[in-house]
Design a protein that fits this description.
Layout lengths: L14 H14 L4 H15 L5 H9 L4 H9 L2 H4 E3 L3 H17 L7 H12 L4 E2 L1 H11 L4 H26 L4
Antiparallel strand pairs: 1-2
Length: about 170
């Protein structure tokens, strides 16, 4: 049998230290209204992709995502996406983007910071109805349902981000 060894890690910071660092980044790394609008545009497209022609075209044209396009066109839309990114998820996305900006020696967040943080902070927050997941699993030959849910979320978020970026570039906002 294996015996567990006691491992002692040094304390490198207290809860108060963590709070202080978080507050520092919140106060000193700027997020413009345009970047906040960009975050909102991405997340609304991921929540209701069928309402955005560009999103549906992206989904339909890509062999990796066309199953989602077919599902959104043939089912009751609102019942397919059971949970999307809301309050805390948006806060965490913005916070992760701030950290990326700081790690790149900037005191402001760019749309690219948001894009880089998007999947890791948001994909696990989305949930989908079983018919959508089952069809996706069958189409993709995925064996684990949780993997399928995360992949659906990642596909939707990537497409929503691309469409939101394009729309905001056309409007001259980004």
């Amino acid at each position: 049998t294996q015996e567990a060894q006691e491992l002692r890690l040094p304390i490198v910071g207290t809860f108060e230290d963590i709070k202080e660092v978080r507050e520092y980044f919140h106060r000193n790394i700027y997020v413009s209204n345009n970047v906040r609008q960009y975050i909102g545009e991405i997340l609304v497209r991921a929540k209701e992709p069928w309402k955005y022609k560009g999103v549906m075209q992206y989904l339909a044209q890509n062999s990796e995502t066309n199953v989602l396009s077919r599902m959104f066109e043939s089912h009751e839309h609102a019942s397919l996406i059971r949970a999307s990114v809301m309050g805390r998820g948006i806060t965490h996305l913005e916070g992760a983007a701030r950290m990326l900006a700081a790690s790149n020696y900037r005191d402001y967040v760019t749309p690219d910071d948001v894009t880089k943080a998007l999947l890791n902070t948001c994909a696990h927050r989305m949930d989908f109805a079983l018919p959508l997941v089952e069809e996706y699993v069958a189409e993709k030959s995925i064996s684990v349902i949780s993997d399928a849910r995360r992949q659906i979320a990642a596909d939707l978020l990537r497409v929503a981000e691309a469409d939101a970026r394009l729309a905001m570039l056309k409007e001259g906002v980004l």
